[in-house]
Amino acid sequence: xxxxxxxxxxxxxxxxxxxxxxxxxxxxxxxxxxxxxxxxxxxxxxxxxxxxxxxxxxxxxxxxxxxxxxxxxxxxxxxxxxxxxxxxxxxxxxxxxxxxxxxxxxxxxxxxxxxxxxxxxxxxxxxxxxxxxxxxxxxxxxxxxxxxxxxxxxxxxxxxxxxxxxxxxxxxxxxxxxxxxxxxxxxxxxxxxxxxxxxxxxxxxxxxxxxxxxxxxxxxxxxx
Length: 224
Fold this sequence. Notes:
The chain is an alpha/beta fold. It has two domains: 2-119, Response regulator (Rossmann fold), CATH 3.40.50; 126-220, Winged helix-like DNA-binding domain superfamily/Winged helix DNA-binding domain (Arc Repressor Mutant, subunit A). It contains eight helices and eleven strands. It has helices at 10-22, 33-42, 59-68, 84-92, 105-119, 152-163, 171-178, 189-201; strands at residues 2-6, 26-30, 47-51, 75-79, 97-100, 126-129, 132-135, 140-143, 146-148, 210-213, 217-220. The strands form three sheets. It has a five-stranded parallel beta sheet, sandwiched between helices. The chain has a four-stranded antiparallel beta sheet with strand order 6-7-8-9, covered by helices on one side. Strands 10-11 form a two-stranded antiparallel sheet. Helix 1 links the parallel strand 1 (2-6) and strand 2 (26-30). Helix 2 packs parallel to helix 3 and helix 6 (152-163) packs across helix 8 (189-201). The longest helix has 15 residues, at 105-119. It is elongated, with a radius of gyration of 18 Å. The chain starts with a strand and ends with a strand.
């Protein structure tokens, strides 16, 4: 999933970015509220992490701008202030969750999973298509009884496709959600990673789950 992180503490920003990247998230980061608003005006994300106290514009202003444009993107607010009034203001302004600093990274990950799970209308961290299962919390994938080992990027791609099972996803849409602004790879990166997944997910199985829709993109579904 692609996440925007707006946090003005540069060391914390770098740490969160690295931790999320290690977990398979695609992360764009910025350091002030105005830049966050600019980025959100032209890029769609699966989730946003907003620090409350930022220069140029605070997290509440960024959130107001996002919701004012009708965007329902899940938003997690970060703050060093533990006042009830601050949390109420954030939640009433349209935030999905609120996390007080200092926090454990495991809790941040869990809250991100809950936010994105709800946004996709799921009640569980486990996704399933036919005999393929993916556990977003445990980072495990199985086809039947066989455990499948995936790289972080392969896992992110499979999770995205399973979250949109039955929907034809264009190469551009996949690339926009799985890779961030810093990506400088080849133009066929989506085709390459879909090929990797096919070998690991479908090879040796009569029923294929990953399908090419000529001229349109890829779809994950049970059956032709």
